[in-house]
Amino acid sequence: MVPSSGKNLNVPTPRHRPGEEPEFDDLDIPNAGAAPRPDILTDPKEMFAYANTMIRVLDMKNKAVGEWNPCLSPDDLRKGLTDMMITRIYDDRMQNMQRVGKMSFYMKSRGEEAVAVAQAMALDKKDMLFPSYRQQGLLISRGRDLLDMMNHCLSNSGDNCKGRQLPIMYTWKEGNFFSISGNLGTQFCQAVGWAVASVYKGEDAIASTWVGEGTTAESDFHHGMTFAAVYNAPVLLNVVNNQWAISSFQGFAGGERATFASRGIGYGMPGLRVDGNDFLAVYAATKWAAERARCGGGPTMIEHFTYRAGGHSTSDDPAKYRPEDEPEVWPLGDPIERLKNHLIEIGEWSDERHEQTAKDITALVTKKYKEAESYGTLNSGARPEVSSMFEDVFKEMPDNLRRQRQQLGV
Amino acid sequence: MVPSSGKNLNVPTPRHRPGEEPEFDDLDIPNAGAAPRPDILTDPKEMFAYANTMIRVLDMKNKAVGEWNPCLSPDDLRKGLTDMMITRIYDDRMQNMQRVGKMSFYMKSRGEEAVAVAQAMALDKKDMLFPSYRQQGLLISRGRDLLDMMNHCLSNSGDNCKGRQLPIMYTWKEGNFFSISGNLGTQFCQAVGWAVASVYKGEDAIASTWVGEGTTAESDFHHGMTFAAVYNAPVLLNVVNNQWAISSFQGFAGGERATFASRGIGYGMPGLRVDGNDFLAVYAATKWAAERARCGGGPTMIEHFTYRAGGHSTSDDPAKYRPEDEPEVWPLGDPIERLKNHLIEIGEWSDERHEQTAKDITALVTKKYKEAESYGTLNSGARPEVSSMFEDVFKEMPDNLRRQRQQLGV
Amino acid sequence: MTKMNMVQAINSAQDVMLERDSSVVVFGEDVGYFGGVFNCTEGLQKKYGIQRVFDTPIAEGGIIALAIGMGVNEMRPVTEIQFSDYIYPAFDQIVSEASRLRYRSGGEYWAPITIRTPCGGGIRGGQTHSQSPEGIFTHVSGVKTAMPSNPYDAKGLLISAIEDDDPTIFFEPKRLYNGPFFGDPKAQSQSWDSHVKGDVPEGHYTVPIGKAETVRAGSDLTIVTYGTMVHVSLAAAELSGHDVEVIDLRTLTPLDIDHIASSVCRTGRCVIVHEATKTGGFGAEILSQIQETCFWKLESPIVRVAGWDIPYPHAFEWEYFPGQGRVLDAIKKVMEG
Amino acid sequence: MTKMNMVQAINSAQDVMLERDSSVVVFGEDVGYFGGVFNCTEGLQKKYGIQRVFDTPIAEGGIIALAIGMGVNEMRPVTEIQFSDYIYPAFDQIVSEASRLRYRSGGEYWAPITIRTPCGGGIRGGQTHSQSPEGIFTHVSGVKTAMPSNPYDAKGLLISAIEDDDPTIFFEPKRLYNGPFFGDPKAQSQSWDSHVKGDVPEGHYTVPIGKAETVRAGSDLTIVTYGTMVHVSLAAAELSGHDVEVIDLRTLTPLDIDHIASSVCRTGRCVIVHEATKTGGFGAEILSQIQETCFWKLESPIVRVAGWDIPYPHAFEWEYFPGQGRVLDAIKKVMEG
Ligand SMILES: Cc1ncc(C[n+]2csc(CCOP(=O)(O)OP(=O)(O)O)c2C)c(N)n1
Ligand SMILES: Cc1ncc(C[n+]2csc(CCOP(=O)(O)OP(=O)(O)O)c2C)c(N)n1
Ligand SMILES: [Mg+2]
Ligand SMILES: [Mg+2]
């Protein structure tokens, strides 16, 4: 039973591997401003084209153009920029702290900051977020104290998750940010349930959920799409197509044959494909989908076309499976650079201000981190109470756990 | 927390319930012959329209028309008709035998016979079938002895499944018919694995698999679609949309918002929507997809638009949830009637011949059933060896099972 | 008090809770208009509307995910998995999500969901309509598991499960829906009418989660069992010629080991009976805890009576089913041993 | 003979089988070009080509379904589930399909698949990279389960699993990949180089499925254990001051009860150790079978040492982990009891 030479199994292969020169020349990237903006209650059947084009607002000259331009105020633009900068500086710092052994693990969102930050801004605070592990920008945009985020990552005595979760698996109830699961995709259909309950309760809040493009292969993606469609749930179903899933490129999720946005078509919901590195495009698409959901128009699927500029996590070395300079040649640029240039272009920002802001953020992050360490790190200093490890398995501790706790002597 | 009056959750509702007058006037049914037949290696992106139209060959005047007409010989047409008739008469007989207590359970395929019979004819004998429980026509078309089928349903000493499975959960290795699972949908991605192995082995055989439209909501459907797309597997992914899933109409699988055939689009594979009660259309679409798969064109999804004319199973009373006369007003008619009328129209069949054939089949089925009873029924007569219940859990019986068998004293 | 069979009792529990608490909703495959393939939700959609009692797509994983999301948003979903043989596609959502949410979020989020699911054999359902998978879930931290053996307990336990703020899997031995079953398929079938536990209050009451019940007092030997096997064990006890005590667990986890241990330490002999396959079944845990607690009082080895380690074979249902004969053999062995 | 760590041994087993049998293919998330997140398939794609060693979509259920279909079509797929915490989405395909196919088809079809999956904690992986779910699968009829504790057994058992015509789940205690681990995270980490079971033949050999091994002979007490806990138990045995026998199960199901029973009947005392949560864990089954077989020889209650009945908490990994101290306590208790 030797494989024949004639027919070969199709196993997807990325465009380049380490040692090869990365290029994306044939990527089909529509011009900014080219896509029209349909009415928010447009019939999904009339929206097939949106799944195959790309909504883009920022053009090559750093101008915001076209119908999707959300016309944000300079203040809002500056908030967006600043929050993306905080996210990146925070990420870098935490990754460094992991490298020196202060915590067990870390995952950055470098290159994808626009997705989380612009979406958080476009949604209402009352809207519920069911993210994956790579949307820390949501927390930052919603104003979570960096100290709390750090305390969680350090699993220290200030960790609201009581030391039970890996770093970056945040929970923040006050900010309507769900508990991140280590199991990929599980939140996708849960978000639909939350949204259905919101309708049932007669409330106005909607839900938004995120998975990576690799995770679309999991059953939860399909369940989320199906249940959202059937109950016309007010929910945003986001696929962050950052091209990579650990070492596997998006072809292993089916991305070579069709856009992820076009998955929406078969479920009868709009699928928007957005330049995920274009803050304004992400913001505008999210606003459109949120308004649609709030008006009873049901779910929208959004594919954010972006690029994971860093490694998958601190356990990963991307140089093993893709050219080291692939991130640099990514044709859609860097979301922070692009928004910065736009603000400068419209006369509302400058290189100096940018430098200064970066410095201020770095100082803030350093200060916060110092404070966080005073609550302990994974290997030294204060921790949550050991006895707390037996709590919250159930609302009330059953006898078997009480006995086990006694056995441990805590 | 009382539900608001303003916004209501969308819960799909079928067009009619018991007591209401069934009608399907606004069903969008394209004319026979209207759909063009694309080249078998057409790019899926150019095939979106096929997911929303309906491939139909037999017109209102019982003529076969249009590009999809497979131009079958009269002999082939008669074989198709006869096999559908055998399927129906067999089904009726077995259901009756269940009613009188000879077996535990039964499921008919009434109204959907064209799907299984035409597809079996359009595929090669070497092609592997991964069906659901409602494609008994595949067995009949491939020539399985009715005696063997009955022996299985009776769980008697002649049952090749050794009494381990419910009736209708057939297995027939010789006929390249997989073992039916009681768990919905599980075969869908298994078929993809089989097809991938076929490519790997350099063989020419393809796989074909079936699920009901209700089952498309299960994860296996999504996995089958994803894996088939990623590996470009030579497989036919059939969705038999018979409008009902026990008591739930197809809206609970998302059918109100988009056709099932359009699910193919998001995975980058052709989705064909076929009049499932039109033997010639089913045959033609299957041939197209099989040829495509064999030429390296990869998977095709086919939605068979049909109607479950009987109850879900012998445990079910459809009068509880749909108008009793809904089957009669189904606008796409009955597959046997339609093919019969076509054969008469072209002068290759007659009412008399039809009657006679029905009589012959009935006599055959009666004879076979009598023979089958001589091998035992569920409650009397011979059974498989009791000790065999401990076999085949593993290839070789481990000690714990040997001891349990001894404990039972068999 | 009314006479109810188990289907009616389960229906009534949901009815009571839908009435009392607007955050309760009921959903699953075919549970809406149709009222469920076993009629356990019959009439509820008509009474409470399509917003509160509704059908779902056929996707057990999606059903539980939907329930979790609703639970996080302050609702109290009661879901049905049509057969417990079909709970496996929801395994990840139950184990990794519902059962872990409160813990992993430091207590900030939880999902008070109830999963009703018919289990067990004896209805000629073949290997995929007969399974008793409770032993898979009793190993999972963070989810409670219960299995009633009669209408009164079924209603009271189900109300407790719905009111409980933790996820609960509520296994319904479908062979008991219409009457107690003593293990002999040829015997005249009985109804719940003549059974004391067929008397069920119409309104709200609870049977507490985590409490076993002694359903027959005795001093020679203790049978620990649950679900359908309670009745089989009672019948065997009657025939055994020994003074057998029978404990109906009702809740599997958290296990009422104190109740069990105090009985076994008294009788010194124990038989554990369940319908699920033996190896790795919940009987092993019960046996282990008894051994750990009552070792010095045991007068002979504890014996497990269970389904064989094979799928439930359609034609050999009654050879698979651990009926009175196998329980009697075990009693004899333990009394002699 | 070469020195191999467990990653290399596992890699070598696949290498040997890919070489010998063209029906063997290896696939899973990140196993192809990248060689797996733990490097267990490093270099295999390069050596055998993209048709035989390849990446998959991230869908564990799909991976196992694909493997079953390939298995039915005469191939012998070796799959990787990246962490055993992520095996749950494949639960239905493993339990209802792979494990039941031969039975339900009357022996006409089967799928000789192997599921490799790293398990266990001790690597600061938090609750979703540390689980030991073997106890869920040991209750399932029709699938075999194995967990090696060293490179030699890992390679030999994995080859047996691949060659076996039944589905096998092959649990790899990831804490042992690089060296034996005795339970003290602060101790100097050891490599397999200096361990006798680090000597691994380069070619084909097998360790039979279903056979336990006595890794330390003793007459006072028997420890029954597997995986990482073999080393922790050996270390505790050493410190205990008693003459402790240690049995490494290697295969969980089918269980080598004869081997275990002959030891416990001799020593009269037994401790069972595993890392998985206690309630409903495989330890309960081991305990039950020993109780059933050796009751009259037992001089004190068998004690189980296991993970607490909670998710594996990130910050309290070492409080969760059943280390030497807890094993020593148990030995003491059993020796005194
Ligand atoms: C159910 C499950 N399977 C596998 C994993 C291991 N895993 C963690 S992240 C990851 C890749 C996810 O890729 P993608 O969805 O594209 O998200 P990204 O990391 O790019 O944001 C994998 C396979 C997991 N966490 N859960
Ligand atoms: C995993 C699983 N869930 C639920 C069931 C119960 N069940 C059996 S058939 C059926 C309806 C299936 O409907 P559909 O897929 O449309 O197929 P049809 O019966 O119409 O051919 C259901 C819910 C099952 N067998 N397996
Ligand atoms: Mg990704
Ligand atoms: Mg159907």
Please give a quick description of this structure.
By secondary structure, chain A is α/β, with parallel strands linked by helices. Chain A is built from twelve helices and seven strands. The longest helix of chain A is centred in the first third of the chain and has 26 residues, at 74-99.
What does this structure look like?
The complex is a heterotetramer, with two copies of chain A (410 residues) and two copies of chain C (337 residues). Chain A is an alpha/beta fold and 410 residues long. Chain A is built from twelve helices and seven strands. In chain A, helix 1 packs across helix 11, helix 4 packs across helix 11 and helix 5 runs parallel beside helix 6. The longest helix of chain A is centred in the first third of the chain and has 26 residues. The radius of gyration of chain A is 22 Å and the shape is globular. The N terminus of chain A is likely disordered. With 337 residues, chain C is of the alpha/beta class. Chain C has two domains: 175 residues, Thiamin diphosphate (ThDP)-binding fold, Pyr/PP domains (Rossmann fold), CATH 3.40.50.970; 127 residues, Rossmann fold. Helices cover 34% and strands 18% of the residues of chain C. In chain C, the strands form three sheets. Chain C has a seven-stranded mixed beta sheet with strand order 3-2-4-5-7-6-12, with helices on both faces. In chain C, strands 9-11-10-13-14 form a five-stranded mixed beta sheet, with helices on both faces. The longest helix of chain C has 15 residues. Chain C starts with a strand and ends with a helix. The interface between A and B is large, with 51 and 51 residues. The structure holds thiamine diphosphate (2 copies) and magnesium ion (2 copies). One thiamine diphosphate (TPP) sits at the interface of chains B and C.
